[in-house]
Design a protein that fits this description.
The chain is α/β, with parallel strands linked by helices. The protein contains 17 helices and 7 strands.
């Protein structure tokens, strides 16, 4: 018992002798700065034990409310819920939107299916009606439709207003016949389709292209193929703009005006300029091509111009050629036909041409046809205007200046166009200088 106590005291003494030195050496090696020694300066200096350490200071509050104490940003949402740029879309809203879209798709599919079912039922009824209808069922006469719809009246006006142009009138009557028979078939229930009514009028100036276009518009309106039947005349200046972005609005505006009728593009070949790749006319042509394809039920496009130039234009724009189903060529008038046109114009203006004046006018027309810039009926119209002016001058000098018959003139004097009035025009051509004859 005593031996054990002695051994215990010896061990305790040895530990107290060596322990401070070992601790000091390790502390000195690992913590050269006394302030860094977690055991304080007691073991460095060998003095008394240090006082109790002060309580650790509380950590400073992070500057950002979302900043956590570990130095990383919080995962909490930091945006403004009222800001539309950061507003969250809740799952409930997304589910509601998805349900709405599915409901719309289901309703649209049901509508299409119902429309197809109605179409099938209608077709079956039509087939049954056609099978049960006897072949000898009366459909009415062509004359009844021609007069009832007013088509014959328009054709009669075309005959009265246009002298000659037999091929043109024949072609117009063929188109009218197609429309009449198509309407008769529709009345009985046959399948019908709107024919291609886009047209191309080729010929020299003054051959009646605009007049025929007006008559065709009225015929289409009478037959129900056109809502209004009016004709809108357009040129390049009406369709093509001067700068980028200007062409499309101008072209669409003219198309809007012509909807329900006929759009007549005079001298259409000017829309395409092969020498200039940046020409804006190509944009106008593309719009016209699209409208001719998609709006053919409500708009008829008619192109007019010289035949050779129109052929060249179609070679550049083959899509335009394929969309036009009616090509009508207007031949030049003969001298006799132009004399007849002069008589029609005089009758419309309530003038009387003397019998001996017609041969003089024919000689004038024959001489004028040999000069440049001859324009068929337009030249006749200009000649008639000058003849009316010559008649007025002659009547004024006779009764106002010379005072014949006390200044009283008769109805015949106010309506008469004499050979002398036309002779003045012929003399201007025969006696004028070569470079001035075209202005006579």
């Amino acid at each position: 018992m005593k031996l054990s106590a002695a051994v215990s005291l010896l061990c305790l003494a040895s530990a107290s002798a060596f322990a401070p030195q070992c601790l000091v050496s390790r502390s000195t090696k690992l913590y050269s700065d006394p302030n860094q020694n977690p055991f304080g300066s007691f073991y460095n200096s060998g003095g008394a034990p240090p006082a109790a350490p002060a309580a650790p200071a509380a950590p400073a509050a992070p500057a950002d409310a979302n900043q956590n104490v570990f130095g990383t940003k919080s995962l909490d949402f930091g945006g403004n819920e009222n800001d539309p740029n950061f507003k969250t879309i809740r799952l409930r809203d997304r589910l509601n939107e998805a349900d709405t879209e599915r409901r719309k798709e289901a309703e649209e599919a049901e509508r299409r299916e119902r429309a197809a079912e109605i179409a099938r039922e209608e077709r079956l009824r039509k087939i049954a009606y056609m099978n049960e209808m006897p072949d000898h069922t009366p459909a009415g006469t062509v004359d009844e439709f021609m007069f009832k719809e007013g088509v014959q009246d328009q054709l009669d006006k075309l005959d009265q207003e246009l002298v000659g142009l037999i091929p043109v009138k024949k072609r117009v009557k063929e188109i009218a016949a197609l429309l009449v028979l198509d309407k008769m078939r529709r009345k009985l229930g046959f399948e019908t389709a709107v024919p291609s009514l886009h047209m191309c009028f080729t010929g020299a100036p003054g051959t009646g292209k605009t007049t025929v276009a007006v008559r065709m518009g009225q015929i289409l309106a009478k037959m129900g193929y056109s809502r209004q039947g009016h004709v809108v005349l357009a040129t390049r200046d009406d369709l093509v703009g001067q700068y980028v972005g200007h062409t499309a609005p101008k072209t669409k505006e003219m198309i809007k005006k012509a909807m329900g009728g006929v759009l007549l593009v005079d001298e259409a070949y000017y829309l395409y300029n092969a020498a200039n790749d940046r020409d804006y006319g190509q944009e106008s042509i593309e719009i016209l091509l699209n409208v001719m394809e998609t709006q053919q039920d409500d708009l008829v496009v008619a192109l007019a111009g010289y035949k050779d130039r129109m052929d060249k234009f179609f070679s550049y724009i083959p899509g335009m050629m394929s969309r036009i189903g009616n090509h009508i060529d207007f031949p030049n008038y003969s001298a006799d036909e132009l004399v007849q046109i002069a008589g029609v114009m005089a009758h419309q203006l309530e003038y009387d041409i003397d019998a001996d004046a017609f041969p003089v006018f024919k000689r004038y027309i024959e001489a004028r046809m040999e000069l440049p810039y001859f324009s068929n009926a337009r030249t006749v119209r200009n000649a008639m205007d000058r003849a009316r002016m010559n008649s007025a001058i002659r009547t004024f000098e006779k009764y106002a200046i010379r005072g014949e018959n006390g200044g009283l003139c008769s109805v015949h004097d106010l309506k008469a166009i004499t050979a002398h009035d036309f002779q003045i025009l012929l003399d201007d051509i025969e006696n004028a200088d070569a470079d001035k004859r075209i202005f006579a």
